[in-house]
């Protein structure tokens, strides 16, 4: 089979002259870690996301970088006529394919090559076992490693009974050991077996110049070369796959159904700090019983539970790794291997931090800006630089089907941001936004609320059963508010749901597939809770894929006036009033420390609208509603006539900016006096057309 049948289109194809930052955006949007690069029609290399990010972080000032600056050219370009089993695979997830003229045709995924290699190996094993001629092989020690059905029939024995035994124990007169010692083949040897004459060819098995065993074939001379070629191809495939495992960056271990280590790569030893002898031919659970592992082995759990398991493992040398054990089943459903993948937690954390920095730096691209402008025309109020950054990140991550963790003090708007993420994704057309407060429902009821229950699951259960919130939120978004308050027994069940992507109703036996976007929110310090043992570390890492921290209202003062006007309009409409804000009241609101954040601002405004008998909310009324410790003394502003509130706001803003710029020598000092950021002052100065001499850009 040839590479041509595996060619597929790449989600991203780059040109060498494209801007590097735009290319990175394309890779992230399509969730690709690399993409082929062409010049005209010809393939010239591959752009790796990691290298591109490195280049962008370290780029020279005022120099636009293009794709060719970060191009990886030392890459194998495949031909559609290349044989799959002869393909040498390196560390890339795909390889570009070009025709005889060097023109780009597409890509071939490494996983597709693996699958076809496996098919080739399986087919060749079938050929070996179902061959009409008998085949028997031994290793360098004379142990029988192959005996097909035809060989068993010719020799009058059960192949399974002799495999693994010494050839001289089974056949004392066998000459295979002599072939191993001499390294010379013995062709066309006539022997008598069960009263019949057969032609026997004995051949040493040579690899890398050394004799590693011998094979005898009960067949005629004409068929010898074909069978030898098959065996050679299988050996070559095994060696190629072995090289791939060894070249992997992640640690890999393979164990049998008894948990005995069969194969480890160098990366595993590097990541765990343990030599290969700790794993090979040893039961993996011995490392836990001997105190080398702090927790039970993930491999042991995968063997016992017959499912993929992911957990954190701590080693007595101080190393901490994230481990995933995946069971491998035979065609008849029997578990016969576990492949364990090991990753460095510190390395993962560094990658996450790099990703977060990149998102923060590049989130303000055109389509996201347009979408946020549409949001701000509706019910979303965000004027401060800090909140606009949060909105940019939220809209970008909404397009990726990944778990989000919202962090921030009580009342900052975590629920509102969760709804924005839901509405910015593709899920509103398919499912609902559902939320639950994990700290407001008793532990005994929370499980049934989340997972639902079957009829008769417990005393008092509804006859028809009840769907849980995971089920109700199918194809939608589920907000787990106050996740830090979730009881630990339920944390274990939630972790399993996130790992398996399925769950059971209480009292149910049929698994329900999970198709829900999970957003968790908390005002607690989850890292601190993890250290205190009150929150599971593995669940924390599962939830903390995309953390978004919402700043408190006191750190985004530019939002206080727009929020106040927004809620005042709503409450005027709700209570059929026509209240306005006194200019002095605005100053008090902006100077207050807002311990209750946006929720406190809403409550105070609604209370004032209801209780205040006048049309204007003056500073003395608002002062009575606020915690006096957080109120600064404000110089009163005298209002001589009535003008529209927005116009009054603009007049006050412009005058304050003019005074601050006149008083101070630099913009930075003026911004500090006004309690706003340097960039906000520059923007507002331009908005009000302040004289150029008053805007000192130092």
TrEMBL record:
GO terms for biological process: regulation of DNA-templated transcription. Residues 120-195, 237-306 form the PAS domain. This is HTH-type transcriptional regulatory protein TyrR. One of its GO terms (molecular function) is ATP binding. PROSITE patterns: CBS, PAS, SIGMA54_INTERACT_1, SIGMA54_INTERACT_2, SIGMA54_INTERACT_3, SIGMA54_INTERACT_4. Keywords: Aromatic hydrocarbons catabolism, ATP-binding, CBS domain, DNA-binding, Nucleotide-binding, Transcription, Transcription regulation. Gene3D superfamilies: 1.10.8.60, CBS-domain, Homeodomain-like, P-loop containing nucleotide triphosphate hydrolases, PAS domain. It comes from Desulfoscipio gibsoniae DSM 7213. Residues 6-64 form the CBS domain. Residues 380-610 form the Sigma-54 factor interaction domain. The keyword Cell cycle does not apply. The lineage of its organism: Bacteria, Bacillati, Bacillota, Clostridia, Eubacteriales.
């Amino acid at each position: 089979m040839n590479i041509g049948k595996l060619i597929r289109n790449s989600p991203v194809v780059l040109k060498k002259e494209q801007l590097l930052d735009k290319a990175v955006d394309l890779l992230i949007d399509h969730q690709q870690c690399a993409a082929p690069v062409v010049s005209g029609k010809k393939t010239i290399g591959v752009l790796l996301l990691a290298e591109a990010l490195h280049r962008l972080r370290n780029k020279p000032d005022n120099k636009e970088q293009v794709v060719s600056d970060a191009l990886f050219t030392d890459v194998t370009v495949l031909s559609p006529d290349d044989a799959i089993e002869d393909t040498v695979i390196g560390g890339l997830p795909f390889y570009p394919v070009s025709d005889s003229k060097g023109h780009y045709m597409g890509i071939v995924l490494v996983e597709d090559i693996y699958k076809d290699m496996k098919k080739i190996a399986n087919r060749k094993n079938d050929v070996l076992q179902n061959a009409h001629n008998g085949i028997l092989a031994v290793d360098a020690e004379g142990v029988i490693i192959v005996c097909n059905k035809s060989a068993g029939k010719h020799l009058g024995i059960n192949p399974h009974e002799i495999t693994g035994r010494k050839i001289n124990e089974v056949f004392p007169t066998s000459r295979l050991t002599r072939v191993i010692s001499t390294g010379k083949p013995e062709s066309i040897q006539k022997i008598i077996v069960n009263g019949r004459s057969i032609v026997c060819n004995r051949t040493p098995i040579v690899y890398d110049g050394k004799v590693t065993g011998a094979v005898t074939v009960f067949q005629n001379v004409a068929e010898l070369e074909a069978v030898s070629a098959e065996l050679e191809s299988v050996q070559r495939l095994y060696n190629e796959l072995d090289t791939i495992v060894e070249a992997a960056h992640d640690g890999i271990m393979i164990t049998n159904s008894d948990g005995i280590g069969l194969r480890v790569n160098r990366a595993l030893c590097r990541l765990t700090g343990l030599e290969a002898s700790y794993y090979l031919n040893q039961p993996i659970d011995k490392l836990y019983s001997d105190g080398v592992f702090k927790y039970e082995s993930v491999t042991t759990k995968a063997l016992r539970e017959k499912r993929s398991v992911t957990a954190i493992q701590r080693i007595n040398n101080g190393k901490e790794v994230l481990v995933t054990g995946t069971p491998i089943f035979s065609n008849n459903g029997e578990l016969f291997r576990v492949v364990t993948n090991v990753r460095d937690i510190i390395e993962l954390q560094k990658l996450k931090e790099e990703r977060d920095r990149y998102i923060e730096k590049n989130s303000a691209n055109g389509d996201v800006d347009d979408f946020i402008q549409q949001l701000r025309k509706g019910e979303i109020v965000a004027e401060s630089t800090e909140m606009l950054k949060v909105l940019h990140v939220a809209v970008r991550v909404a397009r990726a089907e990944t778990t989000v963790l919202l962090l921030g003090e009580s009342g900052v708007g975590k629920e509102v941001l969760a709804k924005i993420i839901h509405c910015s994704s593709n899920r509103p057309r398919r499912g609902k936004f559902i939320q639950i407060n994990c700290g407001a429902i008793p532990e005994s009821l929370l499980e049934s609320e989340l997972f639902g229950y079957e009829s008769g699951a417990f005393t008092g259960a509804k006859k028809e059963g009840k769907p849980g919130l995971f089920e109700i939120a199918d194809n939608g978004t589920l907000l787990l508010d106050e996740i830090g308050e979730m009881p630990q027994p339920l944390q274990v069940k939630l972790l399993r749901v996130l790992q398996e992507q399925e769950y059971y109703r209480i009292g149910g036996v049929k698994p329900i597939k999970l198709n829900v976007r999970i957003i968790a929110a908390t005002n607690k310090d989850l890292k601190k809770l993890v250290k205190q043992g009150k929150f599971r570390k593995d669940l924390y890492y599962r939830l903390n894929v995309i953390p978004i921290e919402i700043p408190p209202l006191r750190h985004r003062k530019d939002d206080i006036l727009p929020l106040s006007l927004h809620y005042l309009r709503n409450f005027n409409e709700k209570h059929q009033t026509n209240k306005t804000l006194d200019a002095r009241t605005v100053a008090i609101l902006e100077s207050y420390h807002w311990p209750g954040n946006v929720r406190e601002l809403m409550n105070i405004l609604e209370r004032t609208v209801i209780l205040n008998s006048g049309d204007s909310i003056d500073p003395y009324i608002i002062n009575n509603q606020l915690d006096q410790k957080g109120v600064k003394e404000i110089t009163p502003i005298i209002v001589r006539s009535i003008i529209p509130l927005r116009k009054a706001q603009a007049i006050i803003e412009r005058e304050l900016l003019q005074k601050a710029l006149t008083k101070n020598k630099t913009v930075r000092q003026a911004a500090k006096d006004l309690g706003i950021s340097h960039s906000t002052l520059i923007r507002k100065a331009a908005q009000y057309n302040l004289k150029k001499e008053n805007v000192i850009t130092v």
